[in-house]
Amino acid sequence: MPALRVGVPSEELAEDLAAHAGERPVDVTVWVVGDPPPATPFDILVLTYMIPAPELRRLPAGVARVLQGQSLGYDGVADNLGPGFVYCNAVEVHEASTAELAVGLMIADRRGFPTFFDAGGRGEWAHGPQPGLAGSQVLLLGVGGVGEQVRRRLEAFEVDLVRAARRPRADEHGWVHGIDRLDALLAEADIVVLAVPLDGSTRGMVSTDFLAQMKDGALLVNVARGPVVDTAALVEAVRDGRIRAALDVTDPEPLPPDHPLWSAPTVTITPHIGGFTGAMRWRMRRVLLRQIDLLLAGSDPEDVVVRT
């Protein structure tokens, strides 16, 4: 059987794949967008993590049979890929780690970590009560991969979890509200978690009206995509401290150094690190080995989200 040609974006990933490929016939080459076109097209080309979608326009025609992304989201991919490509996103790589961060951001805010850390920097012992997570009503918008992982992690925290998605339905964990009830749901939630994909229906979903429906002092957690939130509307909502926010993603991204969100007293920002943990390496390897096995068996790859 001829070796499967695999392109990867780093020596680290090449060494890791070679160490775990076992008896699979694979030929691994380091290649990134901008390198000279390979003499023979790749069977699978793994793209650089978080590659900007416009960079995909630089891929040579026919460079690979399958493109494997390292991100779960794929907004902008279809608009920037040339013809003849199959693109797979990275399912079961980032969901658990992103949910871990979402819960961490909730705990940090509801237990007053930013306040205590700031006080500690001044040498102050800022003893005082905080709301805590237990007993809070959490509105989870999005019940896909990340949303489900958030739900699982919140089971241990004694929260009142309310879930909502595009359409109402029941599943094995209870009722999922439709977004047609969003106004009423927002008015009751102590914490609103965004775990939706970015598309035409969710871009700018968190608007001035959305934020106005939230309770005073409620926390908005965004681990989805920055443009799900209207940044100008959020700046106005947090300026006077009425709304709190914990953001792993922003629009623009990265935020300019002088952006008002940096200095807003009720905003916590992490630099888009939701899935960027040590677990990403072995989870990404698991995905890639599964794709290799499928192609070696003559089957189609999994998790195809774009065909051009």
Written overview of the protein:
The mean pLDDT is 96. The protein has 10 helices and 14 strands. It is elongated, with a radius of gyration of 22 Å. Strands 8-9-7-6-10-11-12-13 form an 8-stranded mixed sheet, with helices on both faces. Strands 2-1-3-4-5-14 form a 6-stranded mixed sheet, covered by helices on one side. It has 308 residues and is α/β, with parallel strands linked by helices. The protein has helices spanning 11-20, 77-80, 95-110, 113-121, 145-154, 182-188, 208-213, 231-239, 260-263, 279-296; strands at 4-8, 26-30, 42-46, 64-68, 86-88, 137-141, 160-165, 169-171, 174-178, 191-194, 219-222, 244-247, 267-269, 304-307. Helix content is 30%, strand content 20%.
Please bin the fraction of helical residues. Answer: 25-40%
In the sheet with the most strands, the strands line up as 8-9-7-6-10-11-12-13
Radius of gyration: 22 Å
Span between termini? 29 Å
What is the mean pLDDT? 96
How would you summarize the topology of this molecule?
Layout: E1 4-8, H1 11-20, E2 26-30, E3 42-46, E4 64-68, H2 77-80, E5 86-88, H3 95-110, H4 113-121, E6 137-141, H5 145-154, E7 160-165, E8 169-171, E9 174-178, H6 182-188, E10 191-194, H7 208-213, E11 219-222, H8 231-239, E12 244-247, H9 260-263, E13 267-269, H10 279-296, E14 304-307
Parallel strand pairs: 1-2, 1-3, 3-4, 4-5, 6-7, 6-10, 7-9, 10-11, 11-12, 12-13
Antiparallel strand pairs: 5-14, 8-9
